[in-house]
Amino acid sequence: MHVVILAEFAAASGGAEKVALESARGLAEAGLAVTYIQAVPGPVDPLLDHDRIRRVVLGLPDIWTLGGARAAAAGIWHAAAARRLAAALAALPEPPDCLHLHQWTRALSPSVFPVLSRVGVPLVVTLHDYALACPNGVYYRFDRAEPCGLAPLSAACIAAPCDPRSRAHKLVRVARSLSLRQALRGRPLHLVHVCDASRRRLGDRLGGPGVKHHRIDNPVRVADGPAAEPARGDAIAYVGRLTREKGADLVAEAARAAGLPALFIGAGPLEAELRARDGVTVIGWQAPEAVWALLRTRARALAAPSRWYETGPLTVYEALAAGIPVVASERSGAAEKVRHGQTGFVVAPEVGPLAAAFTALRDDAVAGQLGARARAEFHARPMSLAAHAAALRALYAGLLGSGSVALQYPRGGAHGSGLEPS
After folding, report:
1. DSSP helix/strand/coil, 123
2. Could you give the CA distance from residue 397 to residue 146 in angstroms, rounded to a whole number?
3. Gap between the Cα atoms of 340 and 333, Å rounded
4. In the predicted model, is pLDDT for residue 146 greater than 80?
5. Within a domain: 224
6. I want to staple 142 with a disulfide (CB 3.0 to 4.6 A). Which of 59, 164, 200, 376 is the partner?
7. What is the CATH number of the domain that holds 251?
8. What span, in angstroms and rounded, lies between the C-alpha atoms of 231 and 361?
9. What's the CA dihedral at 245, 246, 251, 254 to 10 degrees?
10. What is the pLDDT of residues 325-352, one digit of tens each?
């Protein structure tokens, strides 16, 4: 079986890229032929160094580096991306059996969906966020610092000043969403949800006879080393981008209320604000090995108090695997893997509930017991790379073996790929 994985980058700067890279590696190790199509030139993760992985670079710009009108136009419909992708697929030495898309908002745009669907094989899309439905991609009102309950592209949605940048940027995102709806209309699509909450939230909004929903966990690469010792940890840890929607400010306030230091690994808009607080240490981005070496010795718990509907932050799973209790937001998909009072706490993303959870973890026995149980339960049902690859392989095989797939996907070949939505 030959699978084409399409992502915008070939080095992990976020969860979506990390999953795309690890999926490629896992499938190659499982014996599949993999072509990894990288939209933007740049660093390449060693995970792609495998005999069964072929890498193709489209040479597209990251539209965030473009100015004004050029960036807006490319984000709404990037015709050059469609042309280059069609050419790359046509030039493959062997036709793909499945196409798997992980990212499309930074370089590709909705223009790639008609190209991919006209190849004539199943098209699978992993939903790392909600960009297929919501204009700003996260169902979040940045103007109100709260989740959004508006119907995407309704009059109220279009009028809402929810974008973190500006109203003008929101209008570009609305135009992109309208373009996307047109590009997807009537086309078969297989959506992979990385958490149950995503399936519930998008099931009704991404429907239609050609849309099928599937549920597969993200892979978790467990860091080498001994189990953590949270009972000896001195700080509540936070790993990731330092933003308000991810709740970084909540961690600092709640840790102080609980009488515990807060340790932040990452960077972002709140960095200066956090550094100015008493009891807070911000150490910036670190290599993964350094992160987990530090957390194993210093973290009493990992906090992931997202205000938005985050799908599946990988740090939550990695912490559980290492034996670190997790205090997760009830709005996060990753909270599904945290057993309240058993392997951590699932709470509202507010200072009071977070402070109560942190206070409970001041007890050495509680921290130690929750950490030990978290590690044991994770390793009893590991979200390993091999398990992830097996689930993907089973999905692809099922799609190729289904009689309905043959009816939905007439073989057209990459040479027949179109560039405009029908």
Report:
1. strand
2. 41
3. 14
4. yes
5. no
6. 164
7. 3.40.50.2000
8. 9
9. 50
10. 999 999 999 899 999 999 999 999 999 9
Q: What are the start-end ranges of the E strands in 51-167?
A: 53-57, 98-101, 123-127, 140-141, 146-147
Of 345, 340, 335, 344, nearest in space to 369 by CA: 344
Q: How far is CA 163 from CA 65, 69, 150, 159, 358, in A?
A: 19, 18, 14, 11, 32
Read off the pLDDT band of 224 (50, 70, 90).
confident
CA dihedral 155, 135, 327, 349 (to 10 degrees): -30
CA separation for the pair 323, 232 (Å, rounded) = 12
pTM, 2 dp: 0.91
Please tell me the total number of residues recorded for the chain in this structure. 422
User: In the prediction, which pLDDT does 75 show?
Assistant: 93
Do 245 and 365 belong to one domain? yes
* Mean pLDDT, residues 262-288: 96
Give the closest residue to 358 by CA, choosing from 278, 270, 291, 261.
261
Pair 204, 234 in one domain: no
Domain count of the fold of the chain:
2
Concatenate the DSSP letters of all residues of 239-295 into one string: ES---TTTTHHHHHHHHHHHT--EEEES-STTHHHHHTSTTEEE-----HHHHHHHH
Bridge partners of residue 239, in order along the sequence: 265
Q: What is the pLDDT of residue 208?
A: 77
More confident residue, 50 or 223: 50
Residues 154 and 206 in one domain: yes
- E strands in 299-387: 299-304, 326-329, 344-347
CA distance 340 to 342: 5
The DSSP bridge pattern shows strands 146-147 and 140-141 to be antiparallel
| Torsions phi, psi for 39 (to 5 deg) | -70, -45
Indicate if the pLDDT at residue 422 is higher than 90.
Answer: no
State the chain's mean pLDDT as an integer. Answer: 92
Q: Per-residue pLDDT tens for 173-182?
A: 999 999 999 9
Domain that holds residue 278: 230-380
Nearest Cα neighbor of 262 from 242, 292, 289 is 242
> CB neighbours of 52 closer than 8 A, spacing ≥ 6?
28, 31, 32, 33, 34
Averaged pLDDT, 373-379: 96
Pair (367, 264) in one structural domain: yes
- CB neighbour list of residue 209: distance below 8 Å, 6 or more residues apart: none
Instruction: State the pLDDT at residue 312.
Output: 82
